[in-house]
From TrEMBL:
<keyword id="KW-0732">Signal</keyword>
<dbReference type="GO" id="GO:0030288">
    <property type="term" value="C:outer membrane-bounded periplasmic space"/>
</dbReference>
<dbReference type="InterPro" id="IPR018389">
    <property type="entry name" value="DctP_fam"/>
</dbReference>
<dbReference type="Pfam" id="PF03480">
    <property type="entry name" value="DctP"/>
</dbReference>
<protein>
    <submittedName>
        <fullName>C4-dicarboxylate-binding protein DctP</fullName>
    </submittedName>
</protein>
<dbReference type="GO" id="GO:0015740">
    <property type="term" value="P:C4-dicarboxylate transport"/>
</dbReference>
<dbReference type="GO" id="GO:0055085">
    <property type="term" value="P:transmembrane transport"/>
</dbReference>
<comment type="similarity">
    <text>Belongs to the bacterial solute-binding protein 7 family.</text>
</comment>
<dbReference type="InterPro" id="IPR004682">
    <property type="entry name" value="TRAP_DctP"/>
</dbReference>
<feature type="signal peptide">
    <location>
        <begin position="1"/>
        <end position="19"/>
    </location>
</feature>
<dbReference type="InterPro" id="IPR038404">
    <property type="entry name" value="TRAP_DctP_sf"/>
</dbReference>
<keyword id="KW-0813">Transport</keyword>
<keyword id="KW-0574">Periplasm</keyword>
Amino acid sequence: FKTTVAALALSVAAGTAMAACDPGEIVVKFSHVTNTDKHPKGIAASLLEQRINDEMNGTMCLEVFPNSTLYNDNKVLEAMLQGDVQLAAPSLSKFEKFTKQFRLFDLPFMFKNIEAVDAFQSSADGQAMMDSMQRRGLQGLAFWHNGMKQMSANKPLVAPSDADGLKFRVQSSDVLVAQMEAIGGSPQKMAFSEVYGALQQGVVDGQENTWSNIFGKKFFEVQDGVTETNHGVLDYLVVTNIDWLDSLDAPVRDQFLTILNEVTATRNAESSKVNAEAKQSIVDAGGEVRQLNAEQRQAWVEAMKPVWDQFAGDVGQDMIDAAQAINA
Ligand code: LMR
């Protein structure tokens, strides 16, 4: 009885209907940190849950725990290696302890849009990145898109110098620390679940994120406005424990991976639309969205791009060149 109450409480807290896993089904826990609707990852995770539970009923049972209800991104990979969770989709900025290769994606103005990101990820270089953490026990399964990042603060940001002296929340990535330092900001690494409170209480002055995250977690409500900089990308790697994946019978693993790949293709094609809708929802809710003209945006490029030199050694100049060839 105790177990039932605890499990029920967890599922209520997670805001999900209790996925009734039958005895004998392989239970797959998928932990993530965002909201579920109007969000590229939230929608994709829910679709994956629905399809696995329909099409693999009796064999496999997927339970999604959104909104950091099970783990935040700083804990989920450790939990995965311990076998406490089987799937996660942290942003590419959150793999620093496991690989430095993904720093490429954090370099400001590396990719002009999500189509360029997709083209790079689909290349041999991008696909090889999914295998880059096997030695550490993690297997990448798919890249999921969110979108381009925007800047916000408790004062208008038009010129990069407007950021001077402001405290910014960043994800746990040294590239993002360097990027905020390049515009005179004080970066602070912080878990996603803590950002709203930190902005509200003035622990930090600003942040960068995609439209869907700024809308989904209501950051715009505690900021002066959001400036459309599109200065960087926020994308995800769906990742699993390699031993767990190997432990599945081949037909089960194949069906699971086929469904995952189909969900990836379907939802990645919609990510830009989901972010555009989130942006419109911010405007509709009375949030201030600021545009930059070409000259103003160029000032952000010039302020932030020197960061590339600091990390070329980690990511490899050949990777930067390959990304830029695709981005051209
Ligand atoms: C963040 O920490 O800002 C994002 O990585 C959250 C997410 O998963 O989109």
